[in-house]
Design a protein that fits this description.
Oligomer: single chain
Shape: globular
Helix content: 25-40%
Number of domains: 1
Strand content: 15-25%
Structural class: alpha/beta
CATH architecture: Alpha-Beta Barrel
Strand order of the largest sheet: 3-16-15-10-9-8-7-4
Number of helices: 9
Order of helices and strands: EEEEEEHEHEHHEHEEEEEHEHEHH
Radius of gyration: 18 Å
Largest sheet: 8 strands, parallel
CATH class: Alpha Beta
Length: about 300
């Protein structure tokens, strides 16, 4: 039984990685799971300078998921290079750096700083709904997507995956724009926009009123979008959105995903990533599947 996958020339021991913003740099979760088991760790967004994030409250539990408006709080790329890369390199797993910015220049600055660094892939975050500039403003405009991806790709010395927003009318259009800009792969979906109101305080629960919704409730939407994008582009797709079990992951792979990422499930089950890996392996044994290529994209 072979669970290995190859994405843009990078080999993963299995198709399971973490979703950015849900696993930090792995330090906290290393107390619960063996990080060596993971196909890859997608770190929290990294900017060219430290970001303080949004005002609290910025997290709210909702039925079937979670609303967040953290705002990509992070200590910046220099801290990441100095502290996080050496920590992660202790483990036998791939490092994927989620790159964020308020402008094209800020994205490019991060990628330039990461040149020559010991990481495996870059994930361009043009789809976060929780920042006032950049983020989703880029990720919903096909012209801007192609422009940002093209500018970043010129400076990248590692394969570049682009994380897409689901908050669009037709995600295949934004997917094709990212591909046209030079993306090597795509990651989807980022969070849907949502809201929660405290009816007793008569105020929104989140300080920014609206946040990004993730968790099991978004899985059918994510799965549909991954299926559509896999049919629309020629580059690999990493599927995420509500994945909690091996069976969930298998659905995304059957829809065409080359790999999957586990996000919000980490918050209510810190063992979620390994549970998903073991669930995939159990399904393969039960079904007599030797390689995931046998079932990838079988849904016509």
């Amino acid at each position: 039984m072979d669970t290995r996958v190859n994405i843009c020339g990078v080999e993963f021991k299995n198709p399971v990685m973490t979703a950015s913003g849900t696993f930090g740099s792995g330090r906290e979760y290393g107390e619960f799971v063996d990080l060596n088991r993971l196909g890859g760790i997608v770190v929290k967004g990294v900017a060219d300078k430290p970001w303080k994030g949004n005002d609290a409250p910025r997290i709210a539990e909702v039925y079937g998921g979670l609303l967040n408006s953290v705002g990509l709080q992070n200590p910046g790329v220099e801290h990441f290079i100095k502290e996080d890369i050496p920590f992660l390199r202790q483990y036998d797993t791939n490092i994927i750096v989620n790159v964020c910015g308020h402008s094209v220049d800020e994205y490019v600055n991060v990628v330039k700083a990461l040149k020559g660094q010991d990481v495996d892939m870059l994930e361009l975050n043009i789809s976060c709904p929780n920042v006032s500039e950049g983020g989703m403003a880029f990720g919903t405009d096909c012209t801007m997507i192609e422009k940002v991806v093209s500018a970043v790709k010129k400076e990248a010395d590692k394969p570049l995956t682009v994380k897409l927003s689901p908050n669009v009318t037709d995600i295949t259009q934004t997917a094709r724009a990212a591909e046209a800009g030079g993306a090597d792969a795509l990651s989807l979906i980022n969070t849907l926009t949502g809201m929660k109101i405290d009816i007793y305080r008569r105020q929104p629960v989140l300080a920014r009123k609206i946040g990004g919704m993730s968790g099991p409730a978004v899985k059918p939407v994510a799965l549909r979008m991954v299926y559509q994008v896999c049919k629309a582009v020629a580059i690999p797709v990493i599927g995420l959105g509500g994945i909690c079990t091996g069976e969930d992951a298998i659905e995304f792979i059957m829809a065409g995903a080359a790999a999957v990422a586990v996000g919000s499930a980490n918050f209510f089950n810190p063992y979620a990533t390994v549970d998903v890996i073991e669930g995939i392996e159990a399904f393969m044994r039960q079904q007599g599947i030797e390689n995931l290529s046998e079932i990838r994209g079988i849904i016509e």
